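Look over this entry.
=====
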Amino acid sequence: MSDFSCVITASGDGEGPGGADALRASVGSVLGQSLRGAEAVVVLASTAAPAVRTAARALADRAPGRVRLLHADPAVRTTGALRNAGLDAADGRYVLVLATGERLQKHACRNLWQAGERSRADLIAGRWSRVADEGGKEREPSWQGELYARSRTLARFTDAPELVARDALVTGFCLRREAARRHGLRYEEDLTHGEILFGPLAAAAVGRIALVRRLIVTGRAVPDRARDLAALVEAHRRVANTLLAHGLSELREERETAFARDHLVPLARSFPRLPAARRARVAAAAARALTGSFRDGLPGLPPLERVAVSLLARGDAEGVLAAAYALSRPATVCAPLTTGADGRVAWGGEEPEGPGVDVTELGHQYRAFGDARLMNRLTRATAERGRLLLEGRLVLPGHGGPAPDAPLAATLEFRARGGARAVAFPVEEVRRDGNGITWRARADVARRLRPFGARDTAWDARLTVTAGGPDGPRSVSDLFAPQDQVDEALRFAARPRLGRLAGDTWEPYITLKDHFALRLTARRRPARTAHRLVRYATRFRPARKAKHLARSLRGRLERYRSRGFKVPVYNTWLTRLPVRRGSVVLESHMGTNYGDSPRALYEEIRRQGLKLHATWSYDPSPAGFPADARLVRRWSWRYLWALARAEFWVDNQGFPQQLHKPRHTTYLQTWHGSAYKRMGFDETRVRLLSAPRRERLQRAVDRFDHFLVRSGHDVNTLARAYRLPEERLLRTGYPRNDALIAERDRAETEGRLPRPPLAGVLGLDDHKKTVLYAPTFRGGPGKQRRTRLLLDVREFAKRFGDTHTLLVRAHYLESARLPICPPGTVVDVSRHHDVSELLALTDVLITDYSSIMFDFALLDRPVVLYAPDLEAYAAERGSYFDLREKAPGPVTETQEELFATLTELKRSETRYADRRRAFTRQFGGYDRGDAARRTVAAVFAPGSSRGARHTIDLDHDRGAGR
């Protein structure tokens, strides 16, 4: 008896997923297992193609002890029956079933066997991946990450509902053979996709289940959903009935939602690539197969997915096509919308097929014509008297279209892809048509569209519609169409400026993004010959050598621009340059903004009229930086030159760690906030770094000559965490907070109104409270990443939009996409340069663990902490104090608690008044409103301060700071 029996069915026709090559790959992965006790049981169907039979016999002859060939009875025809025959013939301790083409990872059997022996489980499952595209790229389902985040043992399958809610057990798992026979586990022989049902049946029947976080199977084929929809629905329905039989109605609902997301939504997304006749057939089959909750769109789905599933279940092929466009372009209105008496917005609410699907949360109702993105559906593309005739229809949302009597004008434009050249054609007919605008245009592309013929061979079309005269609102849209909209025989003569040898024909086509476009091609013999000659000239041996040389030169040039080249040049040569007296390089948050304490110091230097030459670094854009300062892009040669010659460095985050500080330079580190979470060498992440990386961090910190602190807490936390000696600390407070203290004093004497000028720029209403939501950074080192906000801003706007405006500021190393909300309720201020300006006009702060709470407390205004993961965050990052014990405001863990606190804000504001003041005294004791002046006097002012600075600098430069 072997340790592992891997059942592989061979029923293919010699080509495709079930062919001979796929069989060889599957069997080869079994033979390549590190667990030598693994055998392959190949079940050969009587209808298998000759190539498959030959391959199966060759595999069995090559490894007779490890490959067993089983010839199925002619009566056994379905895949389920073949797999059952393999289960009967298997004699391994564990049995695993592979579809032809699926491959085991090298240690798959060993990992499953070890987990089974250790846990005594009857079913052991691991991760699997499937072929994601035609290029053969593999991808794991996104939901597997959480399910297999760690290896574990389950007492019952309900301990991990995703096992049966998703198709987790279609492959990548094994059964203890004795348990499979004891429970009578068999594949349904009348079911095309029996593997969808077999896994949940096995999970429900056996007891203990082990999950392995390793990848087990690759190469799973994605089912042809358009062809096999009825079979997929039937398999899903039987799984759902199994869950109902076990009394798991909630899990059944979860299964239906997952099935819709995994199969029905991808099917809807594929509609633009299907021919019209097949779209109609698939929609009709879906209408027959999908009943019940599918027609209502399943409430657990996002709105656009709900629309797609509902229209698919109703058999509306054109509606599904529009939904497919919307799924790939969520901000685009792709179908008429209906607004009910209650203000709710429905997709196709007046359609006879049934009630519309609620899509209010998409926020389309808040955008007027000219601001909204509208779907422009191309309905006709043909040739008429040598010209390109295009007809289409622009969708109007129903609430924000132009006035019915407003005059309409339109222009059709073709623009060279990747360039600025564009050619406009008049639209001869444009008129309002119910809930849309229909248009018609004739374009003489043969005469008027004159490309150069080298790089401008593709031209995209778009339509501009203007309502109410030349100064009225305008809508600009691409022309969308399914892939079969354009006849392949549709062509027009082309006249490139380089001559017809560069191309002689315009071919209309639909891009991969479903846009209508034109491309320049060579159809006639002279142009084809010229193209072949050019192709040969660029590919024969001398040309290949020339291209190789050009690539080498480009690579050499890129190397000179790379950081790996710049760092040694800077450290070896540029740091020897003489100092430019009075020059100062300022940087805020690694060049991402013009703000924080470096900005406050720069403006104080200008106010005092000190003769200092300021250089600001920016990354990626100089927009918003002062026009009277020299600007250099971070990591450019000009940036390195400025750093090498500067007398002063000033920043709040850290200049690049690899760069040494010149002997003549004084480095003022203003820092970016007091610490709740552990920092520097107190962080577990830092302590786990390799010794060279810890030493590099220490050398970077050793460059600091001055380090600003705002309280004794900073001395005991930040200064200690970064191992800074007392003589480098400047107990001045943070210059950025001078504005907050000035605003607090002004509000106490003059009142809160009028608000700072920024309130008008942001469109804030004086009669509504301003709430700033500023969560902390939750990532690690690396580039900016997109994050998901823990606060549901749409729900906030719904509950408090009439009385509050929510400002959302993501961390500068993160970005967040906000949903469309009613005007004046939610404003994204993440790209605003200086957060102090936002704090000055904020009435209430919502944050979690961000250092912004230490600054905002100076204003003596309400702070609410929304920390749903407080215990987990504190355990992972570590903290310097108990947040609940010292917080300047209530700590909420759920969104409902947060909203209840905001509703009773006046009561909590009074209750926490003493806590806020105590918080300010403890964490902002040195902030007195004159930090910028005191810091400038200590570091930049002429006289004794510079002498003291040089004393510090000389002592410091004997260490490793350079």
About this structure: The longest strand covers residues 209-220. The two ends are 68 Å apart (CA to CA). Residues 225-245 form the longest helix (21 residues).
